[in-house]
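Bumping with the actual sequence this time:
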Amino acid sequence: MPKTYRESIMEQDQVIILLIILLALVLFVWEKWRYDVVALGAMLLGVFMGVIPAGEAFGGFGHPAVITVAAVLILSRGLANSGVTDIIAGILEPLTGNFYLYLFGLCFVAMVLSAFMNNVGALALLMPVAIATATKIGRSPSLILMPLAFSSVLGGLGTLIGTPPNIIISTFREQSLGDPFSMFDFSPVGMVVAFCGILFICIIGWRLIPKTRVSKRPLQDLLDIESYVTEIQLQDDSALIGILQSYMEDLTEQDDIDILGLIRHGQRFIVIPQNQVYQKGDILIVDADPTDLDRFCAKRGFRIKGTDDSHKKDGEIQMLEGEELELIEVVIGPGSSIADRQIEDIGFRRRYGVNLLGVSRQGHSYKGRLNAFNLMVGDVLLLRGTTERLSTLISTMGLMPLAERRLKFGGHKNLMKAITIFAAAVTLTALKIVPAPVAMSAGALAMVLSRTLALKDLYDSIDWPIIILLGSMIPISMAFEYTGAANLLVSFFVGESPTMSPVLLLSLILIITMLLTDIMNNAATSIIMAPIAVSIAQTLEVNPDSFLMAVAIGASSSFLTPIGHQNNALVLGPGGYKFSDYWRMGLPLDIIIALVAIPMILLVWPLVP
């Protein structure tokens, strides 16, 4: 029977939306552009191709899931600023005498915190604590940071607000089936899976971290400037002007300074001839310990240059004579304004009065000109400046200190107010007095009105790339449903007459979601997989909640790669890890999650209610 015009158009729309999703998936994996740019581009392409109505293109930004995620991020910042880090450090302090007990305590705290606040925020709170306490137990932070990151991801499984995929899936359930999931509907399965995962991490998983990371990256090596490369400039009055390279090498060798290159008149020389004569203004690229470097510069007539410009520009912030300066190491966080930007375009000194002295990526120093370096999430920066200016820079740029925080972002005076407001928002959501977006938004407003959170921090706390990703992907997901593309994929999996058992299909959905979330953002994964899961359940005439829970567990099981979750990327640099290190612990962890999750889902959310 020939197809009608309407059926032909529907089939054409199905192909278009599937191709758009496939293109987005490829671009997510390629990482040429950030995920929010890819998602926005995919949504606009859908509009231009006619599969997304222009009037509904930006409706995703007002979606309840987007509002809830933004509000939870604000509440998380309010808690973080209240001084809860010091309390956590105090709780963990007595456990440092026993490594196993300490690691379990740290991972357990990460799990609990992540269940009620943004898991990136939970890791940001605990990472300085973990690195600081690692010194006391004589362990490398490489043994601790990956378990900590994985535990913070697992903790998000436990509640509605623990992770964006849970919020998305709950909202999708409301739109498809009439009612959303409640605050603790995820807990029976999610917390059991998370606890079993943490047991594996603390007993076996940490042992799977390559020994080369541990032996070569002790704490002092990780945090010392010898892991960095910086630039020093020969001053006009230096006695070394006119000396030969051979003599310079003798001097630097005496002070344990490694010369990596010479910059003269903007031109870089990697190999310096032995008969090269030094001129005033020459810049050396060096690798050195901070104490050795300071002593060498003071004695030999050099100054640490870093990214500092030798000539003052209009509007440049100058460091005042006599200001007390300090060094601090920070890691570039997800959503940071300086990620994917070259150092020379940022203006550390010009705009903020802070000097960038060095950069480290995956535990290895960068051996080129600092200004030409393209920064990424997870890179470690060595900064020098006043406490006030460093604090402003860290807050503005989305950076996270790696050592014990001497820069205070808040005080204990707001701790009880922050906890009370947060608990009230959670209670209103859990008791279904008001919907989650309303409760969380009211909590965010209360944080500001009570002066627990500054108005500036309210906007800074929102991870705008995630908001753009969600707002852009939701219209794509809706088009995926109403064009019939989701049913098309379901018929591919299930067929006209289902032969595969529902349990096997449930397992397949979980595994596919796990694999997707390791190569693309977990929120985007849940947006794509939720309609497929419900369509399969409805075709099989079984409980859709079982399949939605499988998507929720799978979307938050990002352990095979550093790009699967923001927390994985955050510890990449500080832990000195390589891309291939993640699957060593992540693959067995994924297997354990699948083996625990499927029986728990069938027990708590049976296929036939």
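The tokens above came from a reply further down the thread. The first strand starts at residue 230 and ends at 234.
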